[in-house]
Write a structure and sequence with these properties.
Strand content: 25-35%
Helix content: 25-40%
Number of helices: 7
């Protein structure tokens, strides 16, 4: 019986998946680099890179420029969504838009946020919390962590006059983005902001964006599930 030869990049993928599934590599664990994998499996860096890239596209790994590759949050799911400015979406429907700026400050980031922003745990990032309204009804809470190395003047902005997305698009033009989509029951404070009950399901989108200089921001967008659909279009 002829034995089927498995492509070498698939062997590396199976190895990494096995480590994750067995629990040896937990969430946020650092994965061996392309060089380390190429040496371990006696393959080219291109082969090792293909294995890491495909697992990243599948949502199992997170690649952070300058920091390495890490095991993704187990609940994450990659999804390609259209990225639009929420103010434009609401205006296109002929509705009224306004926003309340709840928080705008510098914060120390934990390990998970640091990995996603290509920073180190304890480093400073900029944080904003903005509540978006459609026809005076709260429609989306946007919590965003921003890499201060790439957007130095973020804390000087008034996000009642311009959305964070619009500002970042002008200061650090988007070249790449990933999304994680999850149905959640939000925390009490978020439910209060969105004017919904504690039992109302929400759709939460975690969006990581890049410019040509590196990771720019991580946005956590939470909206009532009955007012949100995939594709980043809000319905009301």
């Amino acid at each position: 019986m002829t034995q089927v030869k498995i492509a070498k990049y698939r062997v590396i993928k199976q190895y990494i998946c096995g480590k994750i599934e067995s629990g040896q590599w937990l969430e946020h664990s650092k994965v061996p680099s392309e060089n380390e994998l190429s040496e371990q499996f006696s393959v080219s860096r291109m082969t090792a890179r293909r294995a890491l890239q495909e697992l990243t596209e599948q949502g199992l790994l997170v690649r952070s420029q300058g920091s390495g590759t890490f095991v993704a949050t187990f609940k994450s799911q990659s999804s390609l969504l259209e990225i639009r400015n929420i103010a434009d979406e609401i205006d296109d429907r002929g509705h009224q838009y306004h926003a309340e700026q709840l928080t705008l400050k510098a914060v120390e980031v934990n390990e998970e946020i640091a990995i996603l922003l290509s920073l180190k745990a304890g480093d400073i990032a900029y944080f904003s919390s903005v509540l978006h309204f459609e026809n005076n009804s709260p429609i989306q809470l946007e919590q965003r962590f921003v890499n201060p190395k790439l957007v130095a003047n973020y804390l000087k902005q008034d996000f009642t006059q311009i959305t964070p997305h619009e500002y970042l698009s002008s200061e650090a033009p988007l070249t790449e983005a990933t999304h994680e989509v999850e149905a959640v029951l939000a925390k009490d404070e978020i439910n209060q902001l969105l004017a919904i009950s504690n039992t109302t399901p929400c759709l939460q989108v975690k969006r990581r964006t890049w410019s040509s200089q590196g990771v720019v921001s991580l946005a956590i967008l939470t909206a009532p599930g009955n007012k949100y659909r995939l594709g980043s279009h809000l319905i009301f």
